[in-house]
């Protein structure tokens, strides 16, 4: 069972995703997490502390995702693209937390802290992709393709009819192999 702290962060993510930062109150988070307000305040003394906790969670999940990228049996690029595509995310992984942090960026919390946390996520993924792709431009290209798939995941936009991630991976492999000549 999840700890009270994790339940609070899970509830905060859900409220941010469903209602946006402006609508989230400490009372609403406590109720959604099924903890008392005192229990919430024990872990997070303010909305700013709650936001900082969510950014810490994003950095932790990003580091774990980067490790998974590096150790993927099919290689970093295949893992990155598959898990970026709609339906390909890892439950409890970075995707949901990333979306909540994007919603947090719309609110009153410091935009600088959000940008710094998102920069860590990007740097983690890029470093992991560079382990397979020595050329930084090709690694960046693979990251940008994954980011496009990720945007579809976050917005609920389906892939084009008749195409799937395996088609994309096959073409990317050919392009990436051609780029190593």
From TrEMBL:
UniProt keyword annotation of Transcription present: yes
DNA-binding region residue numbers: 25-44
Pfam families from the UniProt entry: TetR_N
Domain HTH tetR-type, first and last residues per copy: 2-62
Keywords: DNA-binding, Transcription, Transcription regulation
PROSITE patterns linked: HTH_TETR_2
Tagged with keyword Transcription regulation: yes
Domain of life: Bacteria
InterPro entries in alphabetical order: Homeodomain-like_sf (IPR009057), HTH-type_TetR-like_transc_reg (IPR050109), HTH_TetR (IPR001647)
PANTHER family recorded: HTH-TYPE TRANSCRIPTIONAL REGULATOR BETI (PTHR30055:SF234), HTH-TYPE TRANSCRIPTIONAL REGULATOR RUTR (PTHR30055)
Name used for this protein in its record: TetR family transcriptional regulator
Organism name: Pseudonocardia xinjiangensis
Lineage summary: Bacteria, Bacillati, Actinomycetota, Actinomycetes, Pseudonocardiales
């Amino acid at each position: 069972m999840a700890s009270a702290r994790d339940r609070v962060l899970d509830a905060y993510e859900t409220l941010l995703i469903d209602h946006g930062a402006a609508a989230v109150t400490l009372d609403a988070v406590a109720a959604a997490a099924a903890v008392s307000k005192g229990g919430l305040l024990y872990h997070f003394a303010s909305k700013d502390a709650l936001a900082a906790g969510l950014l810490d969670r994003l950095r932790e999940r990003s580091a774990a995702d980067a490790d998974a990228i590096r150790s993927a049996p099919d290689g970093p690029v295949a893992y990155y693209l598959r898990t970026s595509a709609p339906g390909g995310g890892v439950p409890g992984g970075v995707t949901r937390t990333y979306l909540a942090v994007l919603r947090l960026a719309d609110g009153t919390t410091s935009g600088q802290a959000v940008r710094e946390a998102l920069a860590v996520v990007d740097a983690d993924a890029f470093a992991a992709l560079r382990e397979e792709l020595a050329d930084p431009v090709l690694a960046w290209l693979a990251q940008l393709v994954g980011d496009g798939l990720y945007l579809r995941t976050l917005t609920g936009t389906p892939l084009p009819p008749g195409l799937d991630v395996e088609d994309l991976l096959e073409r990317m492999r050919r392009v990436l192999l051609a780029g190593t000549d």
